[in-house]
Structure formats: structure tokens, C-alpha cells
Write a structure and sequence with these properties.
- The protein has 17 helices and no strands.
- By secondary structure, it is mainly alpha-helical.
């Protein structure tokens, strides 16, 4: 009989480097003043970040020039559309027009290969259209921007197709694309009708599936025959987006469907303080944004903000502890399964609590990322991409410059 792994096995240690940074203490607050009076990161760390970002951007651009096959992938997740989103973010932080122009060049290149099929944000046309709409709006090309908004809205019939509901490939990904545009361009460009219809369908399908499976959570979803819980493919990612949507269909079911579903996920926390990747999987090993505590923590923090119950914050703090211990992953420095993405857990908790320990932890993970390439990590298959590679590391480091404003990309609206 195969031995069942428990939270006392060393499998998480096998997937991560030992965290040798000393944890935060009250004395650390005296030793390390992390913020300036204006709320920005202190000057020493800011200078280091800017220097490393410049080097990583140069390497990224060198790769784009020398390896034209990179542009064959047009997704946000691993392709050039994600790099366009990075440059849009750089423009938002540094206000340099060159960054906005580069975002336009990359999204223009990506749009040439628009397939007109998938509507989701991370892996489909939804991401290309949504980012194009925002970039062209910021360039003052309002007519062109509205053209892409219209094209995205015209994909609404895709939600009726036989597709999953999760964030990466499904209906929630299309909902995110709509809300992404709305967050930049306003409700006048994306009114409530299509997002509300999409969210209502996600809720209804989740309710029906949970009933069919006899699961105690009011909402449940399936992807590749598994009942995933994580942010990328599972229930927590769907709930994370729904908790942010001021839509009638969502607000109507906040108490009867959404909150008890959050409670269900919360109840599954391992003794290690991590979370399982899917229901029925007791192997406690993945401390990633896509699977595990680093993704689920965002749902918990948003639930705390919505329902004002300390239990969500307590679970989020436990998530922070396991991420601090096992979050310096060997799979690289990226967002999906790397310390850059894991550090956003600390930042989200810092924003919710003003707990300096969480900001300290985020800064220590940033210090790890600043030594990019020196730890013997494995090289991801898309080493320059937003979610697996250096583009995501750059995105995080730049976001850290304004800790109170930092948000995990493609998750918050």
C-alpha cells in the first residue's frame, strides 16, 4: 500500500531553498526602515531594484531580438502579450513614454496573430484585446481603443460554449478581461450587462456542479477531471475575482454562495498551513501561486475585507508563515511558481493589516530576486515570460517600489 504523505514529510523542502533570512522582529524595525515618509520603498533598496530591473530588461530585449520565435506565443501567460503588459506597468510606475511605445509595439505584433477563438485573458484573445484597448487609450487613440473593446464584447457568446470556468482557460478569464478594461477605461466602456451575465453563469454552473457532486461547498468547479482549489485553475481563483466584482449577480449571492464557498476552502488548510491543490489530494507539497497558499491567501484577504471576519485574516497569516518558510522555490524567480509571485502574498497581507513583518518578508524575497540567476534554480521553458520568467520578476520588483499599491497581475481589478 502506498504511503500517504502528511504535512510532516520533507517534500516541500525538496522543492524550495532553505530560507536563511532572519525573520522579522521588533528590533528589525529599528534596524531597517523600509519606507520613506511618502510611502515609497527606501532609497537603498529602490536603487538596487532600479539597477537590476535595467539589467533584466536589457536581457529581455536582447532575447526578443535574438530569438524571434518568442513572439510565436501571443498569450499573456507566457507570450509577448504578457511582456506588453509588463511595459504598460513600467509606464504606470515610471511615467516614461518609451515604455508605453514599447507596450504598443508588442501588442501590435501580438494582434497580427489574433485567432478569434478563446476569450479568456491569460491564454486567449481576451488578454490581447483588453491590453490593446488600454494601451491605445493611453496613447490617445480613442477610436482604435474602442474598436478592441467592441471586439472583446462581441466574444460574449463564448461563455455559452463548452469551456471550463477557471481563471486561466475559462469563463472567469473572460470576466477578468472585461473588468480589466473597465478598471482603466470606466463603466461607460464596459457596462454591467456582459460582465453580469458572465458572472451569473459562472455562479449557476458552480452551484449545479456542487449539487451534482454532493459537495458541502455551495460552489465547485472541475478542470481536467479534478476539483482544483488554487488560484490559477480552481475555486479560490474564481472566488477571488467574484469577491471584487460590484455586479448585481455577484452581490445577490455574496452570503449564500460565495462566503460559504470561501469558508469551505478555508477549512481545508493543512497543519503545515499550506493548502491542497485539489479536493481528495492529501499530498502537501505545492507552495505556488497556481496551487497552494500563495494563491489562496488572496481570496482570504478579500473575504476579510468583504465580510469583516477575523478568521480569514488568521488563515491568511498562517499562509504567510508557510510561504516564508518554503516559498523560495527552485523552479525559478517567476510569478506562477517562484518567489516573485509568492512575495505578493506578503504584500497583500501588509496592505490589509499594515503589519511591518509582511512588508519585511516581501522585501527579503525581493532581495532573493535581486540576485537573479545565482541560486541554481531550474530555467523555465519560457524564461522571459510574465508568469514563468524574468518579465514577471521585473513586474514584481517594480511593483514593490510602491508597496501600498502593489497587486498581483491578472488577479486584481
Amino acid at each position: 500500500m502506498k504511503k500517504q504523505r502528511t504535512s510532516h514529510d520533507p517534500f516541500m523542502e525538496e522543492r524550495s531553498f532553505q530560507n536563511r533570512f532572519p525573520d522579522y522582529t521588533d528590533e528589525k524595525e529599528e534596524e531597517e526602515c523600509l519606507l520613506e515618509e511618502d510611502g515609497k520603498l527606501n532609497g537603498v533598496l529602490t536603487t538596487r531594484i532600479n539597477d537590476v530591473v535595467e539589467k533584466l530588461l536589457k536581457a529581455l530585449e536582447d532575447a526578443l531580438r535574438s530569438s524571434p520565435e518568442i513572439a510565436e506565443d501571443t498569450s499573456v501567460y507566457t507570450g509577448i502579450t504578457g511582456i506588453s503588459l509588463l511595459y504598460l506597468h513600467l509606464y504606470e510606475v515610471y511615467k516614461k513614454e518609451d515604455y508605453l511605445k514599447r507596450a504598443k509595439e508588442l501588442i501590435h505584433q501580438s494582434l497580427k496573430k489574433l485567432r478569434g477563438r478563446k476569450s479568456t485573458f491569460l491564454l486567449g484573445d481576451g488578454g490581447q484585446l483588453a491590453i490593446a484597448a488600454v494601451v491605445y487609450d493611453k496613447l490617445g487613440q480613442k477610436k482604435k481603443s474602442r474598436e478592441y473593446v467592441t471586439r472583446l464584447k462581441s466574444m460574449k457568446e463564448s461563455i455559452l460554449e463548452d469551456i471550463p470556468n477557471e481563471l486561466m482557460n475559462g469563463r472567469t478569464g473572460y470576466l477578468y478581461a472585461l473588468m480589466f478594461i473597465r478598471s482603466y477605461l470606466g463603466v461607460e466602456e464596459i457596462s454591467d450587462d456582459i460582465p453580469d451575465e458572465t458572472a451569473a453563469l459562472v455562479l449557476e454552473l458552480g452551484r449545479k456542479f456542487a449539487t451534482k457532486k454532493g459537495i458541502s461547498s455551495p460552489l465547485m468547479y472541475e478542470w481536467h477531471s479534478k476539483l482544483y482549489l488554487g488560484a490559477c485553475h480552481g475555486l479560490s481563483g474564481i472566488l477571488t475575482l467574484l469577491l471584487q466584482c460590484p455586479l448585481k449577480s455577484v452581490q445577490t449571492h455574496m452570503k449564500d454562495l460565495i462566503q460559504p464557498s470561501v469558508d469551505y476552502v478555508q477549512s481545508l488548510q493543512f497543519p503545515s498551513r499550506n493548502y491542497p491543490s485539489s479536493i481528495g489530494n492529501d499530498v502537501d507539497r505545492l507552495v505556488h501561486w497556481c496551487h497552494g497558499a500563495p494563491g489562496i491567501i488572496h481570496m482570504l484577504i478579500l473575504a476579510y475585507k468583504e465580510f469583516k471576519e477575523e478568521k480569514y485574516l488568521d488563515s491568511a497569516r498562517r499562509c504567510s508563515d508557510v510561504i516564508w518558510k518554503y516559498g523560495l522555490l527552485k523552479k525559478g524567480y517567476g510569478l506562477c511558481h517562484g518567489p516573485a509571485g509568492n512575495a505578493y502574498a506578503f504584500l497583500a497581507l501588509y496592505q490589509a493589516t499594515n503589519d511591518q513583518k509582511q512588508l519585511y518578508r516581501a522585501c527579503k524575497f525581493a532581495e532573493w530576486c535581486l540576485d537573479f540567476g545565482t541560486h541554481g534554480c531550474s530555467v523555465p521553458s519560457r524564461p522571459h515570460s510574465l508568469f514563468e520568467g524574468s518579465a514577471g520578476t521585473i513586474y514584481f520588483l517594480v511593483d514593490l517600489l510602491h508597496p501600498s499599491k502593489a497587486k498581483f497581475p491578472c488577479l486584481y481589478i
